[in-house]
Every structure is written in structure tokens, then in C-alpha cells.
From TrEMBL:
<dbReference type="Pfam" id="PF05347">
    <property type="entry name" value="Complex1_LYR"/>
</dbReference>
<dbReference type="InterPro" id="IPR045298">
    <property type="entry name" value="Complex1_LYR_LYRM7"/>
</dbReference>
<dbReference type="GO" id="GO:0005739">
    <property type="term" value="C:mitochondrion"/>
</dbReference>
<dbReference type="InterPro" id="IPR008011">
    <property type="entry name" value="Complex1_LYR_dom"/>
</dbReference>
<feature type="domain" description="Complex 1 LYR protein">
    <location>
        <begin position="46"/>
        <end position="106"/>
    </location>
</feature>
<protein>
    <recommendedName>
        <fullName>Complex 1 LYR protein domain-containing protein</fullName>
    </recommendedName>
</protein>
<dbReference type="GO" id="GO:0034551">
    <property type="term" value="P:mitochondrial respiratory chain complex III assembly"/>
</dbReference>
Amino acid sequence: MKRHVSGGYLYDASDADVADVIDSNLAKKRIRKEDLNPLQVLTTRREALSLYRDILRVTRAFVYPDNDGRLWRDVLRESARQEYEAARFEQDPEIINRLIVVGRDAVSQVTDKVRLN
């Protein structure tokens, strides 16, 4: 499809190509802490802390050692702590919510498997 652009130039591209060019040249909006709703920040913080406490509760069941002699409980808790520290300064609410959902799913899968055994 031919499109007229200012200056009389013709651009031959599909709508998808034009949308890709526009998206690639637009600056991504950075979300500042001041722009976030305080209740939303508290809610995600509360959910993240609740998930962390659930992880600590679920890992109590893993009292057997791994190949190196460390208790699986300690290995899993250390791994969870590292994940939390890696995402500590994340400010994008979508990413935070995705991390919480993935964490909840992992905890529920582990809980289901522990209950079956």
C-alpha cells in the first residue's frame, strides 16, 4: 500500500510495517514511583511478602539433604531469597505482578506434589 508522507514522499509498506516502525521509534514510558497509586504499591508489597511467607512455610516439609549434604529446605529458601533480591528494585507493576503470579503458581504446584506423596 502506498502512503503519502509529508514532503511528497511515497512509502510502500503494510500497516503492520508502519506500526512496527512507529513502535520501535517511540520511547518506552518509564514508570516513576511517584506515578504509582500508593494503594497499588501497598497491595503488591503485601502480596509479595505473603508469597515469601508461604514459600517459607512450604519449604518446612523439605527436611532431607541434597547430594552435597545441605537440607533442601535451606537450598530452596536461599533460592527464593535470591529471586526476591534480584527483583527488589523492580518498579514496573506488570513485571511485579507477573513475578507474583509465577511464584504463586510454583508454590501451589509444590504444595500439590507434597500432598500427593
